[in-house]
Amino acid sequence: MAFLSLLFLFNLLSVAHSQTPQPPRGVLIDCGATVSSVVEGRQWLPDAGFVFAGTPKNLTTANLVPILSTVRSFPLQGNIYRKFCYVVPVFRTGKYLIRTTYFYGGINGKDSPPVFDQIVDGTFWSVVNTTEDYGQGMSSYYEGVFVAQGKTMSVCVAANSYTDSDPFISALEFVLLGDSLYNSTDFSKYGLSLVARHSFGYNGPIIRYPDDLFDRYWEPFGEHNPTIAGVRNVSVSGFWNLPPLKIFQTELTTTLPGPMELHWPLASLPNSSYYIALYFADDHDTSLGSSMMFNISINDVIYYHDLSVTPAGVVVFAKQWPLSGLTKITLAPAAGLNIGPLINAGEVFDLLLLGGRTLTRDVIALERVKNGFQNPPIDWNGDPCLPRQYSWTGVMCSEGPRIRVVALNLTSMGLSGSLSRNIANLTALTGIWLGNNNLSGSIPDLSPLKRLEILHLEDNRLSGEIPPSLGNIESLRELFLKNNNLTGQVPNNLIGKPGLNLMISPGNQFLSPPPS
Ligand SMILES: *[C@@H]1O[C@H](CO)[C@@H](O)[C@H](O)[C@H]1NC(C)=O
Ligand SMILES: *[C@@H]1O[C@H](CO)[C@@H](O)[C@H](O)[C@H]1NC(C)=O
Ligand SMILES: *[C@@H]1O[C@H](CO)[C@@H](O)[C@H](O)[C@H]1NC(C)=O
Ligand SMILES: *[C@@H]1O[C@H](CO)[C@@H](O)[C@H](O)[C@H]1NC(C)=O
Ligand SMILES: *[C@@H]1O[C@H](CO)[C@@H](O)[C@H](O)[C@H]1NC(C)=O
Ligand SMILES: *[C@@H]1O[C@H](CO)[C@@H](O)[C@H](O)[C@H]1NC(C)=O
Ligand SMILES: *[C@@H]1O[C@H](CO)[C@@H](O)[C@H](O)[C@H]1NC(C)=O
Ligand SMILES: *[C@@H]1O[C@H](CO)[C@@H](O)[C@H](O)[C@H]1NC(C)=O
Ligand SMILES: *[C@@H]1O[C@H](CO)[C@@H](O)[C@H](O)[C@H]1NC(C)=O
Ligand SMILES: *[C@@H]1O[C@H](CO)[C@@H](O)[C@H](O)[C@H]1NC(C)=O
């Protein structure tokens, strides 16, 4: 569910507009590409600055548009890494249309593309299943609307239990939307995940930029319905969602002045709440005085009473409408009206409850700890704790509304580099396991970690003295420092600390012999 296909293979839309509007603002990333390219006046960037995992690959499929001809693929390696994230700079509180595009091209050697998950920040977005589209030689895209909570946003792909070969991605787009778009949605709690966006009675190529100022895709729908489509002359205005005028040039309608039934969207939907927007504009000769009026029902539940449709156009939207299974929209004209109802376009989004975010202070501290390592785990990008099943390797987090990092276990991960003093800002930590790595430098002051119980730094190359402040951590009950290159005196407050399991030898060169 919730994915749409786009025939990208041979027909890039040829657009020859005399007055092309300003291209939408945002970032277009051509995943797996090593050089930037310009497509219809818009620049696509190579992905190297946005992602630190995976391998760029070139597709061998002939006649591909440039954006689909490369992918980045992420080796599964027995699922030791949880997620693979692109991190994109954004304007904080900016509202973004995010679009991911996938075209498999056989890069994993298997005939069929892998099925996997996609994630935005700490929120599970959807399953990516491109099997059917790929079987028809088409790419797949997913679109969502999310508001940036910070200065970056992450979009990640991750293996799920169906994933049988390496996840991949072809393109990633971030387009800044105008403030009024979809503004009935509370974007601090929800994201929108596109289910369908169609221009009714239309059968041309997908309507997008420059017709759509934000490059949303309006797919053709309804050429096969028992309806007519006409070229119309309406002058619409005042739509907060700013749909392209082109969608008002065609319509679905009935020749009979009776109710019209529309089975749309076509897919059977999971039981959830949906944002629905339906667009109308009357093209009849209104000089006769009668305006078009009808009731709208969805699955036989009244959705809007006595809608008056004029040439200026009208949109009717529901911000949380429950749908499940197949959907039927009925447009019933007011009694006595001898013109049939009409509809021009519609959008349906699944309302996605946001998964939350790890406490920002912990995220910043953990980023700095990561920067201290020369070779941090490749999945240390995106949200450290969320979604729950996709936390960073070795990062354990608290439950509840305030999500904090409570333990770090990077035992035997082959880590080089040093232990950043910013680890002391992760004040919810109760355990740190960094044994059997290649860490050098000194042990930072960890005394702000008031809840720390267990500290394992054994079998590294740490040097300098044991910070005496470790003895001030009351909760500390296990301290392993053997096999480093530590020197100086062993602090007395550690040697004498009751209930502390202290292991500091062999392998260090202390001036005072440790207690035996
Ligand atoms: C893909 O093709 C480009 C241009 O032909 C080339 O520069 C790049 O090295 C290729 N990448 C791979 C992974 O083969
Ligand atoms: C993916 O989609 C195909 C075609 O619609 C379907 O047969 C298959 O069961 C789906 N796979 C998963 C794991 O959902
Ligand atoms: C949405 O935007 C329109 C146009 O800017 C504005 O009139 C309206 O009050 C906004 N609605 C909400 C809920 O913010
Ligand atoms: C469209 O309507 C405008 C006035 O609203 C009129 O000037 C124009 O001729 C009309 N165009 C067509 C093709 O009917
Ligand atoms: C959809 O889910 C809601 C609660 O989650 C439930 O009350 C309702 O009966 C479900 N509807 C269908 C058609 O399954
Ligand atoms: C439309 O809704 C109004 C108000 O509920 C009702 O009186 C009218 O009969 C309805 N019209 C049709 C055609 O169902
Ligand atoms: C830490 O990770 C190692 C390696 O994955 C594992 O063997 C060990 O049980 C973990 N320790 C704790 C306390 O979770
Ligand atoms: C981290 O801790 C240092 C002092 O150890 C402090 O100056 C800094 O403000 C802290 N950073 C955050 C993000 O809390
Ligand atoms: C350990 O780190 C040092 C530099 O800090 C590096 O030269 C060495 O190759 C590393 N050893 C391993 C096994 O990674
Ligand atoms: C231990 O530290 C000393 C200096 O403090 C240095 O000369 C030596 O190379 C270090 N040994 C290791 C194994 O890092």
Automatic annotation (TrEMBL):
Residues 361-398 form the Leucine-rich repeat-containing N-terminal plant-type domain. It is a single-pass membrane protein. Gene3D superfamilies: Ribonuclease Inhibitor. Residues 1-18 form the signal peptide. The keyword Transmembrane applies. It is found in: Membrane. Keywords: Leucine-rich repeat, Membrane, Repeat, Signal, Transmembrane, Transmembrane helix. InterPro entries: Leu-rich_rpt, LRR_dom_sf, LRR_N_plant-typ, Malectin-like_Carb-bd_dom. The keyword tRNA processing does not apply. This is Malectin-like domain-containing protein. It comes from Nyssa sinensis.
